[in-house]
Amino acid sequence: MSTEQAFKALERAGWGARADTYGLLTGRVTDRMAERLLDAAGVVAGRRVLDVGTGPGYAAGRAAERGALTTGVDMSGEMVALARRRSSEVRFLQADADELPFPDSSFDALVGNFVINHLPTPERAIREFVRVLAPGGEIALSTWDLPEHNRILGILLDALRDCGVGEAAPGPDPFRFADDEELRGLLRGGGLEAVEVRQASLSHRVGGADQLWEGMLGGSVRTAGLVLKQPPETRARIRATAERLAEVYRAGGELVIPVSARIGHGRTA
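^ that's the sequence the OP posted. Answer follows.
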């Protein structure tokens, strides 16, 4: 099995196992970002829209609510099953982002809500995205900002570092496209025009340390896997460190955590 195939297998199994826990924390954040993504892609009633890496179908469902003719794809069968239960107005299929099962020019808009940072060959994927878009079609992709700005992920990553825990499973750099020039270069390399990158920020409220911890482990694959393979005493130390780091964001009885992302947009010729 190649490195690429191994990473895809890890992601497929990992996200499948987290279909029921993704919505505890990470999914709530990505759901809140979906409207901004759809705005960037010009999603309106009557447009044919593809949501790549749909997960539980957050962006796809919101596109359908706008009156768009929406299809969602995800590599995880469990996520596809969950998305189908959540929205009957969207067609959901299991498929890889870089091997989309659609003819050329099938869609007017394509969105990927925090999927590009999970793809082992994003340059190949962007070409596939462009292939299925009609002339003048629009693409919008969201990706996480650096951990020091995006604390919903950064807290756990900092806790791991402070506890001297090593790297997660091999795979693409999850923060490559936090660099605006990298994201612009990806979109332009796919042949897109009118490329731009915007910052998207919000504050997310979490009920407390237990909810934060369960959500962090339930909404990631590589980072959570790194935590879970540690011996119990190390896991306890990581959790205590994460709780200490999160306290700076306490406001009364809850945590108010900064979230930061990038949204890249482009248009086909």
